[in-house]
Amino acid sequence: MCGIVGYLGKRQALPIIIKGLKRLEYRGYDSAGVALLNGSLEIVKKKGKVLDLENEIGERTLDASVGMGHTRWATHGEPNDKNAHPHTSTDGKLAIIHNGIIENYSSLKKELELNGHNFLSDTDTEVLIHLIEEIKVQNKCTIEEAVRLALNEVVGAYAIVVLSQDEERTLIAARKGSPLVIGIGKDEFFVASDATPIIEYTNDVTYLNDKEMAIIKDGNLVVKNLANVVKTPFIQKLELDLEDIEKGGYPHFMLKEIFEQPKSIRDAMRGRLVSREHHLFMSGIDQYLNRFINAERMLLIGCGTSWHAGLIGEYLFEDLARIPTEVEYASEFRYRNPVIRDKDIVIAISQSGETADTLAAIELAKSKGSLIFGVCNAVGSSIARTADAGAYLHAGPEIGVASTKAFTSQVTILAMMAMYLGLKKGTIPLNKFQELIHGLDSVPDKVSKILAKGDEILEISKSFYKASNFLYLGRGYNFPVALEGALKLKEISYIHAEGYPAAEMKHGPIALIDEDMPVVFIATKDSSYEKVISNIQEVKARKGKVIAIVTEGDTEIKQMADFTFEIPSIADPLVPLLAVVPLQLLSYHIAILRGCNVDQPRNLAKSVTVE
Ligand code: AGP
After folding, report:
1. pTM for the full predicted model
2. Tens digits of residue pLDDT in 288-301
3. Which of 258, 352, 487, when mutated, tests ligand 1's pocket best, judged by the most ligand atoms within 8 Å of its CB?
4. 350 CB under 6 A from ligand 1?
5. Least confident among 236-240, 319-323, 367-371, 492-496
6. Is the minimum distance from the CB of 382 to ligand 1 under 6 angstroms?
7. Nearest atom (ligand 1) to Cα of 358
8. Centroid of ligand 1 to alpha carbon of 481 (angstroms)
9. Could you report the per-residue pLDDT of 425-449, keeping only the tens digit for each?
10. In 117-174, alpha helices (H)
11. Residues 6 or more apart from 53 whose CB is under 8 A from it?
């Protein structure tokens, strides 16, 4: 999913735009480009990273105080110079950058070709700027009116910025489905896909809603919807600061975010868990307590790592609150004609709060009368604003594409929700509730203890970074951790890895086991410990190499496994918060040893804002 930045003000636009694109590069890094307006439109674009664009610009100053920039994640048209944004109109006087997908672009393209338009790229975006040009010429209207009319003809998702050579000090932005935030400074305006390019300059922002456009002229911001109705923008203060989005001395954002977990988990509990009073405050639940208490079913919806957090949530809600719970892949849920009842509570789990499939899935459930509860990290995001209530993670920006601290914060929130409902419903005995409260309160220190031994994982990684396959196995609460460990390794080291319920192995995957297959077991001392021991023996019998995450003081598995890594003991429902950390480090170190770019892995992007 692409990153877009725009600026209109008194300063030099180029350095602001380039810095902003670097902050958004985690959203896509297939190509980058800028357009600057100073009497005429100056466009420079290049395949590759923002650095390649900077090299392409070279010593040119491109003097202008109005401009825009784009970093691309290719959907339509392969990553190359001609498909890079910005794209221009036939007369070269209009330029556009776009994040999203225009679904009806090919029919629009055919009509425009019949009217003599020629296209230079394979993108859907170029079709939109030609449509805007066609409408502007046919209707002899302003650029803002041409954009409004054109957007009423397109189907799909978009966040766009448009510049027109004939309307010098004007910047047009609009969104539907893809995120867009406007920063309001003193005599200047910033437009971006998220707040990271803006916080350096101002904390005053407004998030555009779906089907809204912003017309920015010197000192003036007008927001209106596509029906031409003027709207009063809701301006809010950002809670972020610059330090949150810097590497803080770490070589990579991913490693910084792994080591931030003691703090981010504590921040997820702040104002909610009061350990000394054995108390939990879940204001989002309190708003709809009766609906939660009388819920017939919980539906946890997400994608990728958020889906894995949801799977742990399923175990937590059934185990602690005795509420029938299902976890759903958003992309399947939205199209499989699911049975949704108004007594269902839908929990939307999303770090970015912008994942298109999750957004569409909850809009579907909402239309069927379900209560939507959002568990999001990005404040002001689309999913957070669509939800009826929710709980923010407060994990701070997560910039590494591979999600780490957001996962442990999601699980912390879901654990507190299940404990809270269990207490309210009387399905959890007070002593167990208090044990879990103390357990949760001890997690940040226990994670610090694990991180302090991180070098042990580096040593283990040195034995396996050349592997071409990995298996991750766990039971109960540790099964979703196995899935998450496998996903982390896949997405940043490009090693094929699978997570499985340990007992499922005998039903197929055991055929994969030989001396070249590393098998990671999450084998902590819980109710299925003995069973996991047998599974380890089955793997060892086929000469598989076993790496086992075990509970401190475990001696039995130490005899069998090739490598063990000890984690502090804690109640079963909370083990995932500890057991995932060494798996995050394992994937990080293996990827580094393989020379991979861990913060910006190939083919991936941080938030998937299109289907
Ligand atoms: C995880 O490391 C990946 N970045 C990806 O699977 C991610 O979890 C998924 O795209 C969901 O993103 P969200 O939490 O922002 O909705």
Report:
1. 0.84
2. 999 999 999 999 99
3. 352
4. yes
5. 236-240
6. no
7. 16
8. 15
9. 999 999 999 999 999 999 999 999 9
10. 124-139, 143-151
11. 18, 21, 32, 33, 34, 44, 45, 46
